[in-house]
Design goal:
There is one protein chain. By secondary structure, this protein is α+β, with helices and mostly antiparallel strands. The chain folds into 2 domains: 2-129, Aminopeptidase (3-Layer(aba) Sandwich); 139-307, Gcn5-related N-acetyltransferase (GNAT) (Aminopeptidase). Helices cover 37% and strands 30% of the residues. The chain has helices spanning 14-22, 33-43, 96-106, 124-128, 146-152, 155-171, 183-200, 202-207, 210-225, 269-283; strands at residues 2-6, 49-55, 61-71, 74-77, 90-91, 113-120, 132-141, 176-180, 229-236, 239-249, 252-260, 288-293, 305-314. Strands 1, 2, 3, 4, 5, 6, 7, 8, 9, 10, 11, 12 and 13 form a 13-stranded mixed β-sheet that branches. Helix 2 (33-43) runs antiparallel to helix 9, helix 6 (155-171) crosses helix 10 and helix 7 runs antiparallel to helix 9. The longest helix is centred in the middle third of the chain and has 18 residues, at 183-200.
Length: 315
């Protein structure tokens, strides 16, 4: 195995990056070239990058480990844990172990720490490397039909979901779930999403500062161009009252970010819109609906199952 260390993402390039990602075991949208490039541009432009490239004897790229220095002697994965739900070594499926062996051997004499965050619990990285610290993420399997999904819910949650949908139909009969899946449509409606996101609660308003908004505008549009993201709204005559950004990969729909109008909270617009999202995913034949990280109460109304997300420190 040959190890090369690059100081920029461009040294690898989008074609090689995306080709490896397509053949990797974890095709997370947070590991794609658009996401990694835009995150680096927004949050690590002034930091030292260290992209470790692993090649086999035939010259094929086997793995990429994209790191950046957060403090002297400490490097962590590109993609902040606050906004990137699943990060990891990008490696050809089935060749993760030999890639990690080569990487560890290449840095044996270096006095540095690698902090790998947001690594899925099922990843080979977690099973091969020591010193893990767990954190929770949420996921739910999507069944064959919407009716079967509803039948799989407990009586309480099934009743509550139906009640909230009926109340919205009664008090806002014009309300419609709409989806923007083309770049121009998404660009036209991102302003509505940011407005609802900031209105949701004070913490979200502080989180979505100018730099964060610029990042989300660029990365969402870039992902939409490749079918990797959608923007959803619950629209009413007076304007949108709830919104979600979803990410898509490997027959999976991921619930990434949200916003709702607090003045319409009694209508439970987020829960109702989420029901439409799950129904749409089922209708499009998606096998899995992933709630991603976060333990917001409304997610539990859809009875997700827990998935472990880990941190790995190598020193």
């Amino acid at each position: 195995m040959k190890i090369e260390i690059h100081e920029s993402l461009e040294a690898v390039g989008p074609e090689a990056w995306q080709a490896l990602h397509a053949d990797s075991g974890l095709r997370s949208p947070f590991l794609t070239w658009p996401w990694q490039r835009e995150w680096t541009r927004a949050f690590a432009a002034d930091r030292r990058l260290e992209v470790r490239r692993v090649e086999d004897a035939e010259g094929r790229v086997v793995a990429l480990l994209p790191l950046h220095e957060v403090e002297p002697g400490v490097l962590t994965l590109l993609g902040g844990a606050d906004i990137s739900d699943y990060l990891d070594l990008i490696a050809l499926a089935g060749r993760e172990e030999e890639a990690w062996m080569a990487l560890l051997q290449s840095r044996a004499a270096e006095r540095v720490v690698w902090d790998l965050h947001a690594v899925p619990g099922r990843s080979p990285t977690v099973t091969l490397l020591p010193q893990l610290a767990a954190a929770c993420g949420l996921s739910a399997s999507v069944t064959v039909s919407w009716d079967e999904y509803l039948a799989s819910l407990s009586g309480k949650h099934r009743h509550e979901l139906a009640r909230k949908m009926r109340r919205l139909e009664r008090e806002a009969p014009e309300a419609r779930a709409t989806c923007a899946s083309h770049p121009a449509d998404v660009e036209n409606r991102l302003g509505d999403f940011f407005d609802l996101h900031r209105r949701s609660r004070v913490g979200k308003a502080r989180f979505m500062d100018v730099r964060m908004e610029a990042f989300f505008r660029r990365v969402t549009t870039a992902l939409v161009e490749h079918g990797g993201a959608r923007l959803w709204f619950l629209d009413t005559a007076s304007g949108p009252i709830a919104s979600f950004i979803t990410l898509e990969w490997d027959d999976t729909v991921g619930l990434y970010n949200s916003g709702f109008h607090p003045d319409r909270a009694t209508l439970s617009p987020g829960v109702v819109l989420l029901g439409h999202l799950i129904r749409d995913a089922i209708g499009r034949g998606k096998r899995r609906f992933d709630f991603l990280r976060g333990e917001e109460r409304y997610k539990y109304e859809f009875e997700p199952v827990t998935e472990e997300v880990c941190a790995v420190r190598i020193q």
